[in-house]
């Protein structure tokens, strides 16, 4: 989308332990940027620090309003990750599942992982189901977050623990694929013995067997609108906009209804 508008693009990955605004400030100096899109994660910085950027920026896919920031300082696009975590858990409960495990983010996570876990807890509570802390398995720092390996390792631990569960909610489709591998290796079947759902709606989810139930994020709309908002803020003094995008629940074949 940026190239269509005749701009060049710099992509910079920000590590978990890096400060994204510090990274952006360095890039502004090195590349003489015209604007920035901060993509994903949790974003919490003081107004004083953000003013140092001195160029337009957009927050994209941030799941909640950043702490300590006023809405007139930036434009944003977001998905309500807590609501979607709720929807996925509610979907499993309506399929008859009550003992639902979740492959969650690291305990200190303050971004989408925390919000999806909050949605999981709230859905259980609203259905009168007490969350079982032993069914909440957190990612570990030594394993790449949201990866197939992470899903595999956490599910192996869950199976080895002997805890009873009928469904797994993985916080990403890649984790769900790893979970399915661990389930099959343990001599069980998906979804006959354990139902599995992911999140993101990546292409792999559609072609995996069985096709994964997932929450598909509006990736193309996110790209289009992010660039549109950034160019608006670069070219005019228009008021900031805050847009929440809708996701789509894909039921797939990896969830079994139980009575």
Describe the overall structure.
- By secondary structure, the chain is α/β, with parallel strands linked by helices.
- Helices cover 37% and strands 14% of the residues.
- Helix 2 (47-51) links the parallel strand 1 and strand 2.
- Helix 3 (81-94) runs parallel beside helix 4 (112-126).
- The chain is elongated, with a radius of gyration of 20 Å.
- The mean pLDDT is 89.
Q: What are the salient characteristics of this protein?
A:
single chain; 259 residues; alpha/beta; 4-stranded parallel beta sheet; 37% helix; elongated
> What count of helical segments does DSSP give?
8
The total beta strand count reads: 10
Q: Give the overall shape, derived from the CA principal axes.
A: elongated
The main sheet comes to:
4 strands, parallel
Secondary-structure topology with pairs:
Blueprint: H1 20-31, E1 36-39, H2 47-51, E2 57-60, E3 75-78, H3 81-94, E4 100-104, H4 112-126, E5 136-138, H5 148-161, E6 167-170, H6 173-185, E7 195-197, H7 203-207, E8 214-216, H8 219-235, E9 242-244, E10 248-250
Helix pairs in contact: 3-4, 5-6
């Amino acid at each position: 989308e940026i190239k269509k508008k005749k701009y060049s693009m710099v992509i910079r990955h920000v590590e978990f332990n890096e400060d994204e605004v510090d990274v952006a400030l360095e890039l502004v100096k090195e590349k003489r940027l015209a604007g920035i899109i901060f993509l994903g994660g949790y974003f919490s910085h003081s107004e004083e620090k953000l003013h140092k950027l001195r160029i337009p920026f957009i927050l994209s896919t941030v799941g909640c309003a950043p702490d300590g920031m006023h809405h007139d300082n930036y434009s944003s696009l977001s998905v309500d990750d807590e609501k979607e975590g709720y929807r996925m858990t509610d979907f499993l409960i309506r399929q008859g599942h009550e003992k639902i495990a979740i492959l969650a983010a690291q305990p200190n996570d303050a971004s989408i992982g925390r919000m999806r876990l909050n949605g999981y807890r709230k859905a259980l509570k609203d259905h009168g189901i007490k969350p079982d802390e032993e069914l909440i398995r957190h990612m570990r720092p030594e394993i790449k977050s949201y990866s197939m390996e992470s899903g595999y390792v956490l599910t192996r631990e869950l199976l080895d623990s002997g805890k009873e569960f009928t469904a797994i909610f993985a916080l990403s489709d890649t984790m769900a694929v790893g979970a399915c591998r661990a389930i099959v290796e343990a001599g069980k079947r998906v979804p006959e013995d354990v139902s599995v759902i992911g999140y993101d709606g990546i292409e792999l989810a559609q072609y995996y067997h069985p096709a994964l139930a997932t929450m598909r994020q509006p990736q193309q709309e996110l790209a289009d609108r992010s660039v549109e908002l950034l160019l608006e803020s670069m070219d005019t003094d228009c008021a900031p906009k805050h847009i929440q995008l809708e996701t789509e629940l894909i039921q797939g074949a990896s969830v079994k209804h139980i009575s």
